[in-house]
Amino acid sequence: MKCSLTLSAFMVTLLSGCATHNEILKDRPQGTLSSSRSAKAFAQCIDRNADSYALGSLRSKIVSTENEPLEIVILNGAMHWAIIHIRTTENGSTAEFYLGGAARITPTTSIESISTGCK
């Protein structure tokens, strides 16, 4: 009984996406993606895609543009859906995807959906 109760509480937490910014960043990235674009252009592309994802249910904001890594915070309502760090590389840039909430259930699909056309 206790085990199923704990599992239920875990699933509610996972699905609701109530992890804080710092809690999401404590884990390793759930995926990385490289692009031939500059870090700023890559961030802008992901930002645009996130705003139009799932019928506009997500809101994104490029939080940091002065220093690397560039940071994009994507919210689903008031809950963190993803935090993305983008760094310049020799051949363009690389994004690290830290996922929260429902994005963790299908990480590959979530990452592909918000980075379509950004490579």
Description:
There is one protein chain. With 119 residues, this protein is an alpha+beta fold. Strands 1-5-4-3-2 form a five-stranded antiparallel beta sheet. Helix content is 37%, strand content 32%. The protein is globular. Residues 1-16 have low confidence and may be disordered.
User: What structural class should be given to the helix and strand makeup?
Assistant: alpha+beta
State mean pLDDT (0 to 100 scale).
Answer: 84
Shape: globular
- What is the H-and-E element order? HHEHEEEEH
Strand content: 25-35%
Helix content: 25-40%
Q: What are the low-pLDDT stretches, counting only 5+ consecutive residues below 50?
A: 1-16
Number of helices: 4
Largest sheet: number of strands, sense, barrel closure: 5 strands, antiparallel
Terminal Cα separation, in Å? 47 Å
Radius of gyration: 15 Å
What is the β-strand count? 5
Instruction: Describe the strand arrangement of the main beta sheet, using strand numbers.
Output: 1-5-4-3-2
Quaternary organization: single chain
Structure in a nutshell:
The protein has 119 residues and is α+β, with helices and mostly antiparallel strands. It contains 4 helices and 5 strands; from the N terminus they run ααβαββββα. The protein has a 5-stranded antiparallel beta sheet with strand order 1-5-4-3-2.
